[in-house]
């Protein structure tokens, strides 16, 4: 009869590594989206960045002051971060 202990540990470790890798990939994606929004160059082609940029431009067209745009932009990115991690 085989022992299941070591295999269970290996499986749990592998699942944990996958979860960490997924979170890191998601963080990279957010960084790429922020780059695309900030530089308006679509270097990474992240749709989230395009959307963030459109929202910020819309708010700016409404005459919202820069400090408020910054606060809202940070809130927007923070919300995006929490939605995927």
Describe this structure in words.
The protein has 85 residues and is mostly helical. The chain has helices at residues 5-39, 47-61, 66-84.
Compose a concise summary of this entry.
The protein has 85 residues and is mainly alpha-helical. Helix content is 81%, strand content 0%. The N and C termini lie far apart (40 Å).
Overview features:
85 residues, mainly alpha, 3 helices, 81% helix
Poorly predicted regions:
none
Rounded average pLDDT = 78
Helix content: over 70%
Shape: globular
Number of helices: 3
Order of helices and strands: HHH
- Computed CA radius of gyration, to the nearest angstrom: 19 Å
Termini Cα gap: 40 Å
What percentage of amino acids are in beta strands? under 5%
Return the structural class: mainly alpha
Q: How does the major sheet shape up? A: none
How many domains in all? 1
**Number of separate strands:** 0
Secondary structure: elements and pairs:
Layout: H1 5-39, H2 47-61, H3 66-84
């Amino acid at each position: 009869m085989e022992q299941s202990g070591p295999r269970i540990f290996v499986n749990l470790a592998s699942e944990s590594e996958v979860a960490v890798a997924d979170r890191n990939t998601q963080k990279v994606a957010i960084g790429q989206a922020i780059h695309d929004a900030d530089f308006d160059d679509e270097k990474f082609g992240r749709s989230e960045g395009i959307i963030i940029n459109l929202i910020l431009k819309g708010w700016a067209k409404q005459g919202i002051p820069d400090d408020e745009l910054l606060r809202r932009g940070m809130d927007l990115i923070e919300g995006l971060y929490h939605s995927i991690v």
